[in-house]
């Protein structure tokens, strides 16, 4: 028995692909196999027929409105008009509203004239309830955590409490960024999301999409239920003009508005390659470590759930992130507060003090060495299974984490540190109707039977190294610090390091590294290059 499960957009034509029908109780991949794919694959891919029995698939906005029972949540409001610069969160407005009020506003009901959305005309603005941690908004309804079952992907115990909810209206978007920690699994529930993994020439990126993969009953459904994902590979980082302003832990933003690029100011963007994919309800997108992504809701209303999966390389990435936070907070806090530069992203609670940032750094360094010691012990006594090694308490406060080296520092480390890699390669990638390879538009193929949407054969498989686990229910202080966030840096538990005599890092230690001649030379080259632009 077959059902119509995929539609490929090829210019103006539609190609239907029929795949075997999979019952709710039969999944194409075992949890062990799914986990192996998630932890090893360094190419974006879409899982199909894996979540048909998840209760969370019923979480459309009306159902969520009933579940929340009048509880207000914060919405980010932005303009639908497309500018040449990204619409960062620092330039958006914010309102608190119920989902019932959001539904009324998005449908243009007159009742919104006096509600929280009254200042924002639906035809000109979009609204986005993004980064809503399920554990927080449903803290009084813990039973709903079981509606999300990431155990089907080989992560036992991971459910709604480790997941984030996203609800947006047409036009709602997330600026192009990459996450410093982990990899990302995204489940589409209502509407469709369109992602473009940057890997097609910039000139062709703005043409009609040729590699959108969706699951719909008809082309009409496609036209009215879309959320676009624009994804770019780690190798395109320099072409995307990375920046840490506005600053948000673990999020490295692009200065380019990838939906409307300013090629005069950012000419290297022409060298990017875009992977663009449209997710349909029931599909799960794997966003590997360090992949840039810009996400846009094309549907009137979209709902999705994601979970960031921690990776071994997150430990090193947290050290880099702690250094970045220390530098950014120190330099920006020293500036005049009247310069009108909104450098701190609204998702950050406050600019942390130098003392707190040093605590972050020391905790991150200790966690890194502890992880290294554990890895060496595992190699000497290999006994525990992958499932037993899976869940660590590394979690980040809110948003993006793809373990990408913080902006320019990534030039020092070269993208992957082979010394910390754990080789975990798939012997054979099971691409097909249930695991769709997302390929670049330039390699678009009409051979739909092969299960490919578009692809790049570079680093299809790579050792898994950094983490994207950073956007869970924990606070950012929990990310790199122990439960006692007030513990002085010189009183850290000796157990947190493989060497009990390890001295706490000081400001001078950090400065000694930062002003090392090799580092200064690189920074000077980067500054001169930036001045040239």
TrEMBL record:
Keywords: Cytoplasm. Signal peptide: none annotated. PROSITE patterns: JMJC. Residues 373-388 have a biased composition (Polar residues). Residues 373-406 are annotated as: Disordered. It holds the Pfam family Cupin_8. GO terms for cellular component: cytoplasm. Residues 126-324 form the JmjC domain. The keyword Signal does not apply. PANTHER family: HSPB1-ASSOCIATED PROTEIN 1 (PTHR12461:SF43), HYPOXIA-INDUCIBLE FACTOR 1 ALPHA INHIBITOR-RELATED (PTHR12461). May play a role in cellular stress response. This is HSPB1 associated protein 1.
